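Hypothesis: this fold can be encoded by more than one sequence.
Test: take the structure tokens below, design a sequence, compare later.
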């Protein structure tokens, strides 16, 4: 009886070990290799993170937003935006780390508070005042009612790489002035980098800030 029990246990252990080895090879080696191979063969750009290059080097991803700020001064907690560039949506709560100096990914999140939340009201009020001040130029003041929602709130992930055409257009005169360009040149840049709805009906028109700023850099020769 004892010998049968030991034999059965050994047989079951052996069967379990073989199953483990087979499943490890199939699901841990063959399947990932097959999926990776198909992705690299059919969608290499997307499989590699939708990287965006400029001047022969990767400068970011189409899928993750970046900040465009001036170097932080001594004792300054938050760096000021570099107003020579188009600015992205706010990224509330995001900082920097040693791997990605643009965003602290573990802290990403939306400004998801209730409409009457005092903290949200303060965030939006302060952000709107900053947008009005930063983007008002001589003879062309920005009115608070002209500020679109995406200029003062974070997206669901807090990492949205896009802004609305309305927010891009609101920044045109300031960008033109800071870079000594004609307004129509910058307007054309925005129009050229405005993507329509997916398949014509999914989502909203949008502007990828990274690609827009790369084009701006090429235009200014900076």
């Amino acid at each position: 009886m004892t010998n049968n029990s030991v034999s059965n246990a050994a047989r079951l252990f052996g069967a379990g070990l073989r199953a483990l080895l087979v499943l490890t090879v199939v699901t841990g080696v063959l399947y990932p290799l097959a999926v990776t191979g198909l992705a690299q063969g059919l969608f290499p750009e997307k499989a590699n993170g939708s990287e965006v290059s400029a001047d022969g080097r990767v400068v970011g991803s189409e899928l993750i937003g970046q900040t465009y700020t001036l170097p932080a001064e001594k004792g300054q907690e938050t760096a000021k935006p570099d107003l020579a560039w188009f600015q992205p949506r706010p990224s509330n709560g995001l900082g920097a780390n040693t791997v990605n100096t643009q965003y602290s990914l573990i802290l990403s999140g939306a400004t998801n508070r209730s409409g009457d939340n005092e903290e949200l009201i303060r965030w939006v009020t302060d952000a709107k005042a900053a947008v009005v001040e930063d983007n008002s130029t001589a003879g062309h003041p920005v009115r608070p009612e002209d500020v679109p929602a995406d200029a003062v709130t974070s997206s669901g992930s807090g990492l949205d790489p896009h802004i609305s055409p309305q927010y891009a257009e609101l920044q045109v005169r300031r960008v033109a002035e800071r870079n000594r360009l004609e307004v129509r040149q910058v307007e054309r840049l925005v129009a050229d980098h405005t993507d329509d709805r997916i398949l014509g009906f999914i989502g909203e028109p949008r502007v990828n800030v990274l690609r827009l700023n790369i084009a701006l850099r090429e235009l200014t020769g900076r």
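Helices lie at 2-42, 44-47, 118-135, 165-179, 183-192, 209-220. The chain has two domains: 2-44, 60-220.
Hypothesis status: open.
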